[in-house]
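1st attempt posting a full record on here, be nice pls
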Amino acid sequence: MQTPLDDRFVYDAIGDAGFARLVQAFYIRVRSDDLIGPMYPSEDLHGAEERLREFLIQRFGGPEQYSKKRGHPRLRMRHGPFQIDQAARDRWVSLMESALAEMNFEARTAEALRSFFHDGATFMINQPGS
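the predicted structure (as tokens):
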């Protein structure tokens, strides 16, 4: 998977540890969320956290562990079994925004992540409006 050259600085700026903290903060919120939480089987929360962390690390210029384990991301296909409407998309983004705010990353880094999260979450919508 190609990483846009202008996004590579994100991994350089926060490294594995920054992505680990961000994803952990996100999943803490997911666990108690009434809309998004049920989409994540409780017995696989750790696996989901690991997959998202490895995907983000790879997407933003880090090691390609995600693809070595799982192949091409195929994000829409992998999310196909879940009913994702505008409300679910907005909640996912809200939880990720809260986690991102907690990180206090440098503005340029936070904005690159924010842009990706907003665009990526919109791309995952697979149900008509809510």
